[in-house]
Amino acid sequence: MDKIIDILDSIAYEKGLKIDDVENSLKEALIKTAEKMVDPTLRFDAEIDRPNKKLELFQKIEVVKNDDERLKEDGVDNYGNIISKENYISIEEAKKIDESLEIGDFVNYDLEFENMGRNAATILHSNFEYRIQRFLEESLLNKYKNKIGKTVSGSVTRVDRAENTFVEIGEVKGMLPRKSRIKGESFRVGDTVKAVVKGVNIDKTNGLIVEISRTSPKFLESLLKSEVPELKDEIISIEASARIPGTRAKIALISTDSNIDPIGSVVGVKGVRIGAVSKQLNGENIDCVEFSTIPEMFIARALSPAIITSVKIEKYAEGNEKGKALVTIPADQKSKAIGKSGLNIRLASMLTKYDIELKEVGGETNISSNETEKQNEEKIHDTASLEALFK
């Protein structure tokens, strides 16, 4: 115990914890050990004397009135715990020990931890280790909560039967669920995986787990920021993004400098920058559009490469609710606006947060973003049912 201060300092440094937290953990562990080894109904406290490099353990006895009922018999607190009369001393008896003592003060009796035996040392170690582990988990929890939306990378350590991929990310475990993996991807032990932090939670079996994703729009945004200095420096910002992972994505960009072209900067010379990001997403096509605070203009740009005749807002978007927009297009632009399997209109709707209905010039409403989404969901369901026959 004579080296306890040095040990505490070493633990705090190696684990990256605050020294106060480490000291409080030891004091709490020491009190719990004393309760177990001596008497759980007594009051104990501990102090760390840094100048003298000593750890002090003592029993606390409260000074009360001479006629206090607690001096006569044991009681029970509000939580049902037994309160021993040994925790109290009358003011008359206390004055015999120290004349300066008053009612409400405490008389402290020193205890020698070394005299409690080997079992006490084992219990202390177990209690102390448990509390340090809780502080470590809390520290890591806060650390990775601050990383939500940021990209991390690590090595694959395991792939389970449900095809969840477990990744070693620094000092914690990361889990990439199957649903958060880009279609067609598969990983083996030893592979390096890059993904965005989606959430953090503590699992009773596996401890701290960081959930990561490769399908989140935030992953696309994070990758772009790593490739485009203007995004990192916030000269250009991503106002909105939408993805159908592994297939196609749209991002809305705006520049704070009128001399900088947001789309040109993100795409890069001969598409080098956007190409580097697309490669990391299994060849996902990324469309860049210029953001506008005018909904009609933003919707028209989001439907590119189609050329739009007009946009009429029938219901404005509020909060998390989607608005509704009627878009008039020339007949020869219909297929471009809809896109292959309805991808273009669906992404435009996701990006702008408007349900988009297309209408040919001089004709009736042809198709809406809602219809294409439903058709796609039905198609996926039908395909899944067919695949199930061969499993």
Fill in the keyword field for this structure:
single chain; about 400 residues; alpha+beta; N Utilization Substance Protein A, Chain:P, domain 4; OB fold (Dihydrolipoamide Acetyltransferase, E2P); GMP Synthetase, Chain A, domain 3; 4 domains; 5-stranded mixed beta barrel; 4-stranded mixed beta sheet; 12 helices; disordered C terminus; RNA-binding; transcription
Question: Would you kindly provide a written description of the structure presented here, covering whatever features stand out?
Answer:
The protein contains 12 helices and 18 strands. With 391 residues, the protein is α+β, with helices and mostly antiparallel strands. The chain has 4 domains: 1-143, N Utilization Substance Protein A, Chain:P, domain 4; 156-213, Beta Barrel (OB fold (Dihydrolipoamide Acetyltransferase, E2P)), CATH 2.40.50; 216-291, GMP Synthetase, Chain A, domain 3, CATH 3.30.300; 299-363, K homology (KH) domain (GMP Synthetase, Chain A, domain 3), CATH 3.30.300.20. The strands form 5 sheets. A 5-stranded mixed beta barrel has the order 7-8-9-11-10. Strands 1, 2, 5 and 6 form a 4-stranded mixed β-sheet that branches. Strand 7 and strand 8 form a beta hairpin. Helix 1 packs across helix 2 and helix 9 (295-302) packs antiparallel against helix 11. It is elongated. The chain starts with a helix and ends with a helix. The model is unreliable at 378-391 (pLDDT under 50). Pfam families: KH_NusA_1st (PF13184), KH_NusA_2nd (PF26594), NusA_N (PF08529), S1 (PF00575). This is Transcription termination/antitermination protein NusA.
